[in-house]
Specification:
Number of helices: 14
Number of strands: 21
Shape: globular
Low-confidence stretches: none
Distance between the termini: 88 Å
Bound molecules: nicotinamide-adenine-dinucleotide
Structural class: alpha/beta
């Protein structure tokens, strides 16, 4: 491993310059940013104060008042140009994501591809913000619904998808006629600076090509929970899309309800897969390995619970153990690596604590140990596979690290009940070639998650579908399908084009 000699601070500065970020933005502030690849500092940023944040929200509100008047397909043109900037900068931004989060190269690039995909989706959407025309009971009347821009959209994002989550929200919010204020994770502000610079480049081009766009259409706020709370409480933010832990959602949700604001809460998952007797075990092995070990177990959709039918348990689990023992762990910037580092030492401690609890609950642990590389502040671990007698203790919680709990089952209905017996409800899958099992899993009495897959793992969603989950995952939906509706307000309009005034439900009121 050559990680010890990497100079990522210099490479980060080069990438940020290439992406159009002014060097003054990441030198000399109070917020220290380290790369999990080396554990060393790669930048220092100035944090926004509470009063600066409030002023930025007021300015974003002014931007909204102008932007909502721009026709939606023209708003789409700005997002199209953003997609072009992202395409042109995919390699640099993807590399920066890998450096700041520790994702392997293909996943860093994949995250930027996801941003490009949602821009494409949003451009098409900008001509499809349809309302319905509805039959009315009154003669010479017409009833329809209109979708209008909502206001400033607050975006709070987590460290593990530092840029894609912004784009899922911002691309839709913008074509819907809203301005945005984004507070990224305090662990990953550098990629946010880069994205903001790319957006500003697209905006400049948009204006140069004759488009009309206000200043402060997209604002970036660097800081921690205190400035996040300003977004949550501000009366001029009608919608906050908050991605992060369930603990964060528990704090944010009631505060939004208190002021009747909308929330899109995208919180923690505890995702499971069921492997049935008829499963294609080669395919299952690959699906499980990617979902459970990919991104070092730091995806909200990471596979954390695996239920294996007793008839195939002894065929699949030893093969999985072999894959866990041989997976390449190390420098995520090197090709061939499949598992990069954990985000920080705290994540490592939480992983070790969960493994300790699992052992106390009767689990047999393979892996989970730190992989030495001579660096004290970078945390590489071998993914852990834990055979559990039961779904108890740490199995019921999300530990944001690569731990896969494996359990044996014999009865399909019983395993479905166990599958749904955790508080989270994000993603799920079943591996089977039995049509009845597959259809049951995706039916009303099957998986209770927002995402339910057949013969693929629970992670790695595409942008075309609505993304989000139930129960403690928060209930929010973003990205594809009709998720755009959350970013607009719906008005029902009734128009009387006659000369009389019939009242609905036959009510008489003659004066
Ligand atoms: P986190 O909860 O620590 O932080 C997320 C964001 O919320 C950060 O920007 C943080 O500053 C902010 N924040 C925290 N408390 C806040 C408060 N009270 N008010 C306002 N803002 C606040 O999460 P993390 O460690 O960055 O990310 C990992 C978690 O995110 C995991 O639980 C993972 O499952 C979840 N996640 C969910 C999704 C999803 O779509 N469901 C996607 C990615 C990550």
């Amino acid at each position: 491993m050559t990680i010890a000699v990497l100079d990522l601070a210099t490479e980060t500065a080069k990438l940020l310059a290439e992406l159009g970020v002014d060097a003054g933005r990441y030198h000399g502030g109070t917020l220290s940013v380290t790369s999990p690849v080396t554990g060393k500092e790669i930048g220092r940023l100035r944090e926004a104060s509470v009063s600066e944040t409030k002023a930025a929200i007021e300015a974003a509100h002014q931007a909204f008042l102008e932007w909502r008047a721009v026709p939606a397909p023209k708003r789409g043109e700005l997002v199209r140009l953003l997609g072009e900037e992202l395409r042109a900068s995919k390699a640099a931004l993807g590399r920066l994501v890998s450096i700041e989060v520790g994702k392997i190269t293909s996943e860093g690039l994949g995250e930027v591809q996801e941003m490009i995909d949602i821009c494409d989706f949003a451009v098409g959407l900008s001509r499809q913000l349809y309302g319905l025309t509805i039959a009315t009971e009154r003669s010479e009347h017409r009833m329809m619904e209109s979708w209008h821009p909502l206001g400033v959209v607050g975006i709070i994002s987590a460290f593990n998808f530092p840029v894609a989550v912004w784009s899922w929200n911002a691309a839709l919010a913008m074509v819907c006629g809203n301005s945005t204020v984004w507070k990224p994770s305090e662990k990953t502000p550098l990629t946010a600076l880069a994205v903001q610079a790319l957006f500003e480049k697209a905006l400049k081009r948009f204006v140069a090509e004759g488009g009309t766009a206000p200043a402060n259409l997209s604002t970036l706020i660097i800081g921690g929970r205190d400035v996040g709370e300003v977004l949550v409480d501000h009366p001029k933010i009608p919608l906050v899309s908050a991605t992060g832990s369930t603990a964060m959602g528990r704090a944010v949700g009631p505060r939004l309800s208190q002021r009747f604001a909308r929330g899109i809460l995208e919180l923690g998952g505890n995702n499971a897969a069921i492997v049935c007797p008829s499963a294609d075990l080669d395919l299952t092995l690959r699906g499980v390995a990617f979902s459970a070990m990919g991104t070092a177990g730091q995806r909200c959709t990471t596979l954390r619970r695996l239920f294996v039918h007793e008839s195939v348990y002894d065929q699949l689990v030893p093969r999985l153990q072999k894959a866990y023992g041989s997976v390449t762990i190390g420098n995520p910037l090197e090709s061939g690596t499949l598992v990069g580092p954990l985000i920080d030492g705290q994540a490592f401690e939480k992983m070790q604590a969960a493994l300790g609890e699992a052992k106390s609950a009767g689990g047999t642990v393979t892996g989970g140990e730190r992989v030495g590389n001579g660096l004290t502040d970078a945390f590489y671990v071998r993914p852990a596979l834990v055979e559990m007698p039961d779904q108890t203790g740490p199995v019921e919680h999300e530990t944001f690290a690569p731990i896969l709990y494996v359990m044996k089952y014999s009865d399909f209905d019983a395993v479905l009940a166990l599958h749904n017996a955790v508080p989270q409800g994000l993603s799920s899958s079943i591996f089977t070639n039995d049509m009845r099992e597959a259809e049951t899993f995706v039916s009303a009495r099957g998986s209770d998650c927002g995402i339910a897959n057949v013969n693929l793992g629970p992670s790695g969603a595409e942008i075309g579908g609505a993304f989000g989950g139930e129960k403690e995952t928060g209930g929010g939906r973003e990205s594809g399908s009709d998720a755009w509706k959350a970013y607009m307000r719906r008005a029902t309009n009734t128009i009387n084009y006659g000369r009389t005034l019939p009242l609905a439900q036959g009510v008489k009121f003659d004066v």
